[in-house]
Amino acid sequence: MRFSILFLFFLLVSGWCLSQAQPYLDVLRIEAKVSPDSELEAIEGHFSVTLKVNKAVKSVFIDGVDIKIDSTTIKGVNAIKTTEDKIWFTHDFVPGEEYRISFTYSASPKQTLYFVRDQIWTQGQGKYTSHWLPSLDDLTDKIEFDLKITAPKDKTVVANGALINKIEEGDAITWQFDMKNPMSSYLVAFAIGDYSKRTAISATGVPLEMYIATRDTAKLVTTYKHSKEIFDFLENTIGVPYPWQNYKQVPVRDFIYAGMENTTATIFSESFICDSIGFNDQNYINVNAHELAHQWFGNLVTEVASKDHWLHEGFATFYALLAEREIFGEDYYYWKLFQSAEQLKSLSEEGKGEALTNPKASSLTFYEKGAWALHILKEQLGALVFNKAVTTFLEQYSFQNVTVEDFLKVVETISGQPMESFKNDWLLQSSFNSTAALESLTKSSFMREYFEAQALRAVPIDQKIETFYSLLAKGNDYIGQEIIVQLSDEPLAKTLPLYQAAFETNNLYIRQAIAQTLQTVPEALKADYESLLYDASYVTQEAAFYNLWSSFPTSKITYLDKLKGTVGFQSKNIRQLWLLLALVTEGYENDNKKTYLNELLEYATEKHSFQIREIAIRYLLDIQVYTPQLVASLVDASVHHNWRFRNFARAQLKGLKPNPDVQKMLNDMLDSFSLKEQDYLKKEILE
Ligand SMILES: [Zn+2]
């Protein structure tokens, strides 16, 4: 839906914020006190909504999926009727008057609200908040949400807004949150768990609360490294004060996405939790900056419809990249642009390119092509004008819904330049403008050097040895890695001294490229290669450990002893590889093999995150351990809420289907499985 200028003026002065489906309805405020119940995987709530209409109507609805209302508690309207996904209010609604309607309800949500071990958390975008909280599954009506959430005494609750009170009620505590400004319903969220936190204050005085599961407290500082710097940088660069009362970030187990920008309360995947070594390989910086950028792009100004999704994802991706440039430098910035350009170019060359205004575009288009469009626009306008246009756009449309056209009009006004050709080349055109992209990339002297190094792929090894030495000596992460990749295709007799020089650069990422590409370790490089086991990278350590173990059979025990105490990432990548290799190394700690097998079997169970489970399951199937415990873990995983993990488990179960022992185990255990699990097994696996 597009608003005309005149209509928009009316909206501005009257403060109306109207839903698309019911243009006469304005939901002003939703207050709810909810109690989620982990045992029953259900929720109960006391709910009230304040709304207005701008014409006389006999009924209005809000969204609510499978919501059961206690009819004795209804106040404020003549009657309420629920259908599968709606709650209808019947009343003689008079224009301009405010109605406050309240009731108590219960629900057992099939999605959106997740109970995962000792945590409870929500995911609204794409999953519909109305599964647990009556609201509007429509992002064009912005509502002030004030939540009260009841949880057991020993738990911490994180939700939208400022915590203004904690009220003890028997064994539970009700946490009362207050929001000052309105937002779309998909941004409502909470998380409950055993958390510790650290609070920092931004340069402008905004409280930044950083949560972490108490079991991971030792990793809080490394996980949230640079958080305040990112916040201050983005607030300063965007040029509009952070629009909300505070900013909280909370990691949860088995999250469906990398992160979600719920207003003031970003929820992100526990897999980003890292120690100082893990930080070098997979840190939270990008997601941290991306979700924070959404607090302006998406939460403060919100798209009217999916055709405007660039205004959310393209902007969040671009501003995250700017924040990363502050931390990791200019080369990193261009490298990331180059990487996404490569992906977009190949998609485009396959004839699968998509316009940014295509409402059904892929995330590659919305995120990466979206960021590219902004990079180009900023180059074209110059940083000063670009920043002024973005600031003006955000100020003009604060707490409203916006279209791509709205943004372009602001840019035209501020810059005095027509946006027609930018719009055609970057927003409407389905193919990726790789010529313009390449032209922009080569403005970076680093990229020019990288392209020269890449061009050496076609040059015979004898003619490039000297160049390789001088390039390696520069110690650039990306150029160094490119050289290592080129070496991997050449005979070792010619490349050995170059590998030695590469080891000596002491560059973490050049050395990592060796661990990843040189899988059979030559005797002459054994000592250098062994030093990789101590590099500050779990990716390097894991690859080096396996390659050394398989290259030198007589040293297997030495390597196992060296890596014995290392865990690795949150996924326990190194510990799990260690267990696998300990199990299959003949004569190694035979007395402990049963304990090691049990540890790996335990990692496959629902007690652990799906990232840990997936590795354990793969390894156990590799060594053909078909025990009832593993089979039960697979069955549990086959109905997991994370679809990637669920599909992985289903594929493994299908692979085991012809095995009569597995069939027997499944039949013997059938009664112990949930109805959902039994349904799946009967339909797809059992014979
Ligand atoms: Zn995003």
CATH homologous superfamily of the domain at 1-189 - what is it? tricorn interacting facor f3 domain
Radius of gyration from CA coordinates: 28 Å
Specify the biggest β-sheet: 7 strands, mixed
CATH structural fold name of the domain at 1-189? Immunoglobulin-like
Helix fraction, binned, reads 40-55%
Strand order of the largest sheet: 4-7-2-1-10-13-12
Question: Which CATH architecture of the domain at 1-189?
Answer: Sandwich
**How many individual β-strands?**
21
Low-pLDDT sequence parts: 1-16
Helix vs. strand class: alpha+beta
> What is the arithmetic mean of pLDDT?
96
Strand content: 15-25%
**Helix count from the secondary structure assignment:** 26
Description:
Among the domains are: 1-189, Sandwich (Immunoglobulin-like); 194-295, Neutral Protease, domain 2; 302-443, Neutral Protease, domain 2, CATH 1.10.390. It has 26 helices and 21 strands. The protein is 44% helix and 20% strand. The radius of gyration is 28 Å and the shape is globular. The protein is α+β, with helices and mostly antiparallel strands and 687 residues long. The strands form five sheets. A seven-stranded mixed β-sheet has the order 4-7-2-1-10-13-12, with no helix packed on it. A five-stranded mixed β-sheet has the order 15-16-17-19-18, with helices on one face. The chain has a four-stranded antiparallel β-sheet with strand order 8-9-14-11, with no helix packed on it. It binds zinc ion. Zinc ion is lined by residues 290, 294, 313, 316.
